[in-house]
Write a structure and sequence with these properties.
CATH topology of the largest domain: Spore Coat Polysaccharide Biosynthesis Protein SpsA, Chain A
Mean pLDDT: 94
Radius of gyration: 20 Å
CATH architecture of the largest domain: Alpha-Beta Complex
Helix content: 25-40%
Number of domains: 2
Strand order of the largest sheet: 3-2-1-4-7-6-8-5
Number of strands: 8
Strand content: 15-25%
Structural class: alpha/beta
Low-confidence stretches: 251-257
Largest sheet: 8 strands, mixed
CATH class of the largest domain: Alpha Beta
Distance between the termini: 40 Å
């Protein structure tokens, strides 16, 4: 059984080493698109023994975020995977991990013939010293994502500039998608309120009419249902809930571990 890891990255030197180390524990090879990085990303990819193919896009082309559409990058990754003819493909961002990584290969070995891919919970990690319990107090920060699928040469993306599923849009043509409760994707990229505000502002600037997000405002999706200009109200509600818990029979530390 051959497992190929794929990813596109940009200026990911802070999280990339950990992502590659995790992916290397269950992948036979890793292919990456380096999308105009100006930090140490290129060096990290070049020196990692499991990274066997890097498509590097020159940074001088543009410094704008998402200069190349996400669907175009996905198309390139799918075609890079075709060159390796793996049994399974695992796609993650540089700020994501599958846990527990040690059990993934056994799961794939035991997958039934009719399984085309696996869906898992995607859990956004929270590490905000100022608001340490905003998750889970204001929301669970969990969604579902398909990041593992059997390789087929006809796979395509959904064609959007942003917010495509990383999994091919036609993967269900080749079998069923099964839910894995034993594995989860840990996402490190939205781990503080400041990071979420920054992402909400970025995506709103790139997609002001919300055409790529099914009409859902980015601030409501990322800021626990609050509009961007109501950040103060979000913080007030968080503090109210903290005080409510502290006034109960258990301390905050006991409630949240």
């Amino acid at each position: 059984m051959k497992v190929l890891g794929i990813s596109f990255v940009r200026n990911a030197e802070a999280t990339l080493p950990g992502a590659l180390a995790s992916m290397a524990s269950y992948c036979d090879e890793i292919c990456v698109i380096d999308d105009r990085s100006t930090d140490r990303t290129s060096e990290i990819l070049r020196t990692h023994p499991m990274v066997t193919n890097v498509l590097s896009i020159a940074p001088h082309i543009s410094g704008d975020p998402w200069h190349f559409s996400e669907s175009w990058l996905l198309h390139l990754l799918y075609r890079m995977a075709d060159l390796y003819e793996p049994d399974w493909v695992v796609m993650l961002s540089a700020d994501e991990r599958i846990e527990p990584a040690a059990t993934l290969r056994e799961t794939l070995v035991n997958a039934s013939v009719g399984t085309a891919g696996f869906q898992m919970h995607l859990c956004s990690m929270w590490n905000d010293p100022r608001y340490p319990h905003m998750v889970p107090l204001m929301g669970q920060a969990r969604s579902l994502a398909v990041r593992i699928w059997r390789h087929h040469p006809e796979l395509i993306s959904s064609g959007k500039r942003l917010h495509n599923s990383y999994a091919p849009v036609n993967i269900k043509d080749f079998g069923r998608i099964e839910f894995l409760s034993s594995l989860e994707i840990l996402h490190l990229g939205w781990s503080s309120l400041a990071e979420r505000v920054e992402k909400a502002d970025l995506y709103t600037s790139l997609d002001p009419n919300l055409e790529l997000n099914e009409g859902v405002p980015y601030d409501l999706g990322l800021l626990f249902g609050f509009e961007r200009h109501r950040i103060g109200e979000l913080v007030e509600e968080y503090e109210r809930r903290i005080e409510h818990i502290r006034g109960g029979p258990d301390s905050t530390d006991k409630v949240f571990g």
